[in-house]
Specification:
homodimer; 458 residues; alpha/beta; Aspartate Aminotransferase, domain 2; seven-stranded mixed beta sheet; five-stranded mixed beta sheet; 12 strands; binds pyridoxal-5'-phosphate
């Protein structure tokens, strides 16, 4: 018998939880016993994201080699900015970046780990801008023409956040249309670029997505590269979510053309289970653009009269000062399971996704939003009371309330976690992301049974 | 007898270290034995930043309660963006921010943890700009007047990096003069603001420093607040390094006037030993400015039809998506030692600094760069061969080479680590930062002996 003693979640209302945790910070310290109890409480009421039935986001599951690397990182507590204080990690980071670049198809280039894919996407924006207008670093955008960025309507919101933060403005992120599968339409991109130019703006960045957040769509990189080349625009690939398919011989075709990009953002903390945070920003550039764009040459940190090769002091490539070590966990996991182990993990996630898709087709009440290209399974659950009533005026309204209602029950009972969202004109639907190698077919059958159990009376 | 078996550093040349670590990532995985050996190698060749003789940067030392919190954070591996996936941490973060704000002197306000003080400083810049020109979020800087930022010549380089990144431009960071102690001169600030206005620019941010990186100077906040009020400019306090004095009754006067600021950046990963990364951005604002400025309202994450109070979903206050949990370690440490324990830690660091200062005065060859106001001890070591030769034409040149030479020997022998840098017209000098509670007077005597030993023949 297969029994889960551990729930995914021990739901408590915020007020109750605040009480249970006894949050207040006081003048005096506490006994070791009391502290141990606190550690237990924190663990008890936290979400068990490594539980095989946590499918709420793209970071479920756990890899124990990576976890060992994370503990070691914490114990060693150093700053990845100079060889002086992080000799091992400077070398490890270079090696990991090189290996990731090789998977992209580049024999040379540059890169850096960032605190998240959002930051990586911002780096692409800043570099593209700087390549076109190097004076922007000293003089800012003042006096420059209006700059425009292009990305699909299903790209991640960090493109817009980045545009706001970097002073470009959200309205200057031009939204390109997608096809039914959620992939950017290159012809529309071409037209939007021409239109923007005709309006006096300067298009400087196309941000493609490999693995969109909700649908898991892959933009057609080769055809987008043609458009970017034609217009001489920086091509960035946000592969935060999908990048890991590059490990798989079987699935890497989804990113065909990625080697033609100028930059790639790839989050091993998602599909590869490296643990938060682990996000690589990769560049094809060999002209030291990253450092030229970001450096401030602080003399207290990046002294030029050091006794070793100061090119190893990678910190000035970033806009950070302190920088957490995010590479060790990935390096250790990679050493442990090899590229072939990574590929297997990716392939297994696809197999899981196909399994779920097949099972859903066999069950009444599960309705796929779109044919999954990746491991995101987007679907509506139609409760029995609504089946066959698609023509009713209030059908869509009612359908939009089903997922939130099931979600509430699911969390309060703590049996599993899965996310939902609306998308464009589609009302709330669930998105299952099956990436953890700990997930079994039993777990997957359980998801479907559980959604039926929780939603059958709605 | 007091013997250190463990060195601070096992120096290896990069090429040799790369060989020792056998960096390459391969197709197949490795045995557990081999992996254990790797873990040992990583630890062996990494810098021991928790060693009491590591004084190279502002993050030396270790607090074991915080370390436990960090391990727990890694084990629980969740994302601090919604109450749904981080119920405990959402509440903990709110509590810690509230307690930090109380120390600043605010009974209400807002805030968020950022991946580093540099990011916190950028947030201040973005908010100040948005408050003045809300349209910047949608339209960008295009068409706006030239915006200027004011900061002292000794402020942290992240102010310039932030200005470049946000499209303001480094040339629009106006450098304000400092007095001999390294503190911003408010009269010069006032003049520079007037000058900038007269040139058609719009001054929008003054970034003061509480605890400058090199000298440890505290800008006179009260007098700067007067200038900011007069010109209606956002006052930000970069207290990344010095903020922790607020715990100490004896030393908090250094930040008198901080409650008049609009925002404060404070890094508990520095003086409080919370572990990297831990950086709080605090705001006096109660109008939800942080969220209004940064939000993108992603419907897949920040659904408004959730069954709990969605104001708890703090993620849209940031420009990140994934966000590491940085609050647990601080909360746990604070619970363990209380505010009084934190205060003692700060007071002890001051006592250490005074001890070092006194000892240096007693020894020939140690020459303070300036009277320390904080726990940064800046000094030149004058080797016997140079003493009394201050008038020689090559004296400054030679002096500038002493610290790098001693540093090289120190690292190659691995006995201790301390940083050096030039500053303005001053040639290379050492900066000792004594913050770890594990440092003893024996360690401090050792520093001085060791610098003499390593530098006496220069
Ligand atoms: C396609 C895509 N890009 C970027 C991001 C942002 O990455 P991060 O959460 O590390 O900032 C995400 C996160 O979900 C994503 O799905
Ligand atoms: C005064 C000051 N401000 C800001 C920073 C940057 O903080 P972080 O390293 O967390 O980005 C530092 C770091 O040394 C600092 O000393």
């Amino acid at each position: 018998m297969h029994v889960f003693f551990l729930q995914v979640c021990e739901w408590r209302e915020p007020e109750e939880l605040a009480q249970l945790l006894d949050l207040e910070l006081k003048a005096t310290g506490e006994s070791q016993d009391r502290l141990l109890q606190r550690v237990q409480d924190v663990a008890k009421y936290s979400i068990k994201t490594s539980h095989p039935r946590f499918l709420n986001q793209q970071f479920g599951g756990v890899d124990y080699h990576a976890l060992a690397g994370r503990f070691l990182t914490e114990a060693l507590n150093t700053n990845l900015f100079t060889y002086e204080v992080a000799p091992v990690f400077v070398l490890l980071e270079m090696e990991v970046l090189k290996s990731l670049r090789q998977l992209v198809g580049w024999t040379q280039g540059d890169g850096i780990f960032c605190p998240g894919g959002s930051a990586s996407n911002m780096y692409a924006m800043n570099l593209a801008r700087y390549r076109l207008f190097p004076e922007v670093k000293s003089q800012g955008l003042y006096g420059l023409p209006r700059l425009t960025v292009f990305t699909s309507s299903q790209s991640h919101y960090s493109v817009k956040k980045g545009a706001a933060f970097l002073g470009i403005g959200i309205d200057n992120v031009i939204v390109v249309k997608v096809d039914d599968g959620g992939c950017m339409i290159p012809e529309d991109l071409d037209e939007k670029i021409k239109l923007s130019k005709s309006q006096g703006a300067v298009p400087f960045l196309v941000s493609c997505t490999s693995g969109t957040t909700v649908q898991g769509a892959f933009d057609p990189l080769d055809r987008i590269a043609d458009v970017c080349e034609k217009h001489k625009i920086w091509m960035h690939v946000d592969a935060a979510w999908g990048g890991s398919v590059l490990f798989s011989e079987q699935h890497r075709h989804l990113m065909k053309g990625v080697d033609r990009a100028n930059s790639v953002a790839w989050n091993p903390h998602k599909m590869l289970l490296a643990g938060l945070q682990c996000s690589a920003f990769l560049l094809q550039d060999t002209t030291n653009l990253l450092k030229r764009c970001h450096s401030a040459n602080a003399t207290y940190l990046f002294q030029q009269d050091k006794f070793y090769d100061v090119n190893l002091d990678c910190g000035d490539k970033t806009v950070q000062c302190s920088r957490k070590v995010d590479c060790l966990k990935l390096w250790l996991m990679w050493k442990a399971i090899g590229s072939s182990g990574m590929a297997q993990r990716v392939d297994k996630a696809f197999i899981h996704a196909r399994y779920l898709e097949e099972q859903m087709k066999k069950r009444e009440g599960f309705h796929l939003v779109c044919k999954p290209e990746f491991v995101n399974i987007c679907f509506w659950f139609i409760p029995p009371s609504m089946r066959g009533k698609e023509q009713n005026a209030d059908y869509q309204d009612r359908l939009g309330k089903v997922a939130p209602a099931i979600k509430e029950r699911m969390m309060k009972q703590g049996t599993m976690m899965v996310g939902y969202q609306p998308l464009a004109d589609k009302v709330n639907f669930f998105r299952l992301v099956v990436l953890s190698p700990q997930v079994s077919t039993k777990d997957m059958d359980f998801f479907l049974d559980e959604i039926e159990r929780l939603g059958n009376d709605l």
